[in-house]
Specification:
heterodimer, A: mainly beta, 7-stranded mixed beta sheet, 11 strands, B: mainly beta, 6-stranded mixed beta sheet, 4-stranded antiparallel beta sheet, 10 strands, globular
Chain lengths: ~110, ~110
């Protein structure tokens, strides 16, 4: 079975721009969640989607948004980029949700904001 | 939401058993304890999950005392390839889904 695929792997953007990251979950998984990883703050939960509906949201500003499509693929969008948004963005899928089934992570998108 | 505290780093030698303890004092009744392993430039990988007492799988054991305020991940006979960052986290049920709070992780270094 193919794992979680995140595209692109690397991205360089300028302050003020916006960016869209993509995540393809494992086939059959209905939950997709997103995380930001930085050396200073570690791994932080952004949001979780299940069957196209956002279930939970972490403590991030409204510039961070996401959506999930009917095939469970998900996208994350960050608008008006700031230098502090430079991070590794990880997506994870699970069968029924992050509470009651293990997460399967992709290898992330490394975003650099200059 | 329960916050976790674990050692920043640990050293070990090949063939030894490694125990990493995590503190989660304000864990709630329905929360689960989960451990993940992360190698550089990769996403975290699920190791084990438990609620209470002891859970064992093919790669690790998880010990959780009765008060559930801490947990210990036990890796038997580590090898160089076990060098990684290990995250303890408490999964809280929220809105029918989960909210995961990751700690800072423990960087395990296994030496020959």
């Amino acid at each position: 079975k193919a794992g979680v695929t995140q595209t692109p792997r690397y991205l360089i953007k300028t302050r003020g721009q916006q960016v869209t990251l993509s995540c393809s979950p494992i086939s059959g998984h209905r939950s997709v969640s997103w995380y930001q990883q930085t050396p200073g703050q570690g791994l932080q939960f952004l949001f979780e989607y299940f069957s196209e509906t956002q279930r939970n949201k972490g403590n991030f500003p409204g510039r961070f948004s996401g959506r999930q499509f009917s095939n469970s693929r998900s996208e994350m969008n960050v608008s008006t980029l700031e230098l502090g948004d430079s991070a590794l963005y990880l997506c994870a899928s699970s069968l029924e949700g992050s509470y009651n089934s293990p997460l399967h992570f992709g290898n992330g998108t490394r975003l650099t904001v200059t | 939401l329960a916050k976790t505290t674990q050692p920043i780093s640990m050293d070990s030698y090949e063939g030894q058993e490694v125990n990493i303890t995590c503190s989660h004092n304000n864990i709630a009744t329905n929360d689960y304890i989960t451990w993940y392993q992360q190698f550089p430039s990769q996403g975290p990988r699920f190791i084990i999950q438990g609620y209470k007492t002891k859970v064992t799988n093919e790669v690790a054991s998880l010990f959780i005392p009765a008060d559930r305020k801490s947990s210990t991940l036990s890796l038997p006979r580590v090898s160089l390839s076990d060098t990684a960052v290990y995250y303890c986290l408490v999964v809280t049920v929220y809105n029918q889904g989960g909210k995961l709070i990751f700690g800072q992780g423990t960087e395990l270094s296994v030496k020959p």
